[in-house]
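Much of our argument rests on the idea that a fold can be written as discrete symbols. The amino acid sequence and the backbone structure tokens for this protein are reproduced below:

___
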Amino acid sequence: MIAYFFFRPIVRFSLRLFHKRIFYDCLNKLDQNPRPLLILANHSVSFMDAFLLACFLRRRVQFFARGDAFHHPLAERWLRSLGIMPVYRKTEGAENMYRNGESHNEALEIFKNGGVLLIFCEGSSDIQKRLKPLKKGPFRLAIEAYEQLEVSPIIVPLGINYTAPVSAGGYVYLELGTTLEPGQFFIEKTEAGKAKAATRLMRSVEEAIRNLVWHVPKVSDLETANDALNCLPLLNESISFLQTQEIINAINSGNPDRQAVLQSLIQKLQKNHQHGPDYLLLILTFPLAVVGFLYHVIPLSTASYITKRNVQAEDFLAPVFLCCSLLLLFLWYLLSFVCLFLWAPAWFWLLIPFLAAACGIFWIKKFKPLLLLHRSTDTAISRLEALKTQ
């Protein structure tokens, strides 16, 4: 538990740097609810999804992870200290399937103590903007918790959406659905009755999550949807999730509003950035950006190289890069402190790393987006114009 609360502010700060904006105000409702919670969410970007909930929900969140990550005793001890429990599939060794019973009992204990459990009910992660069929296990757990516990958990449907799931600088939308009580699906205590209750609950949650995520059923529409959503961070306005849903619904094949929506996005981009970049501001802040870039280019470039060299699955690219960057930046700053401590005055070794960190934040959050804004906008307009004619 100590590791969880120690690393949470660090990862939260890193997530704010990595993503241009995270919409998570809806989570405040869960912080105010004293009941045990079972959060059932879609699964888009491997462990980045879990990072978001663990960092931006004030209550401690516990969740499941693939059982093969727990094979080494040190790894298991570390993961459990972060509130992570194993769940085993046949692909990770049928001989370990019996251990799922232990995790099941641990989940019931979390509810008994009034805790929060997050389960990605699609099973595996996928960056494509569509909801996959849900697994039945979480819903059996919910029905069993209702049957066995004095205070059963509230079911919370959650949608997690990324405009840029494999890279930095995008928007993230966390959206809550209407909470459900397991008891409203429970009719009889027989095994058949519990199975029917779990199925009814699964269908209700699936319908709720479908309204909380971007759902593009046809592969042919994915490119258009991705290009349209990638334009949103370029606009000088806050786009609500409801507005993004309207964009996605219009883009899906067969909708007569498709061209009108794309034209509207093009006009907004042209209007917001018709004057081009602010060259005076770029010139004035250039020295700060250079310091930030030069000080951090080695660890960040190394993290990018490690990620691209070792990660094949797209849904792991962003979180692996984030974790590598955190580790390498920690070592880089530690080395800087040691070197400056040995060869520089006291005020110097205290001041320089903090000044460099401030410049690095400025470079990532302000200067780099401003520098690339005009080119990115032109590219986005060209892509949307091409898609509009298809």
The longest strand covers residues 154-162. The CA atoms of residues 99 and 309 lie 34 Å apart. The chain has a mean pLDDT of 86. The chain has three domains: 2-210, 219-272, 279-388.
